[in-house]
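Take a specimen:
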Amino acid sequence: MLGAEPARRNARPRPPRRRRQLRLARRAMNRSAAILLAALSLSGCVATQRDVLDLENQADELKNQVVELKGTVTSMQANQADLLVQFKRLHEDLSSFTETMRQSQDEMRQLSSKIDDLSAGVSSKVAAIGSTLTSQQAKSLDEQRAALAKQEAALSSQLQQGTPTDLFHASEVRLAKKSFDLAAKGFEDYIARFPKGALVDMAIYNLGESYYGLKKWELAGRQYGLYLDKFPKSALTASSRLMYALCLINLKKNVPEARQYLESLIVDFPSSPEAKAAAQHLRKLQARKAAPPGALR
């Protein structure tokens, strides 16, 4: 029999099966890690490209917004130029209106001078009438009245033959002297004969004043109401409103309407004398309303 072969010195023992499996697992893990790193790198590149595209889109939007902003600025500049032109025209219109007002004021001053001259003439006639009456004091009272009536008739005849301005100013003088009846007749005559005369507005107002002096509240109120209807924006609008309200109060009817007219004076003409008078009358109306029955008579 042959003997067993002796063991070799240089022969290496085979690694166990478990170590081999560990090596294979490590290699697999390394490969997986490499693949994961590549994927992450690739995804980072993709993300970077998306960011670049987003930035480009945002840049385009900003460019569009800049263009729109430039257009808006250009439009605003054009509008500003138009506004400057309009403001210049408005300034020219105001200057023209101011000059027209100055001319109107000069014409009013001239008219006032003429009125003063005419009033002086009428006053001299009235003074002459007075001197005539003084010379006839020895006569009876009936004779004096007859003479006065005759002179008044003569004056009325002269006025009828005279100009519309003569008739108006004569009636105005009578109103100033509180000859309300004669003044009313004169203004009635002027309105009837010259309905489109240059002084018809003042004639309507003064006729209301004459009726108010005669305590004919309803007739006076009609004249003030007519004046407000025909000349709502005149210089005597505030006075006409006040007098119309006072007529209603004196008639003791339509007091709420009178209160509305008084309140409108305070709102529309706060610095006028009529507004102050309206405030006083409103306080009186409030006091009457608050007083118990029978307290005010």
Observations:
- The chain has nine helices and no strands.
- Residues 235-292 form one domain.
- The first helix runs from residue 17 to 135.
- The mean pLDDT is 80.
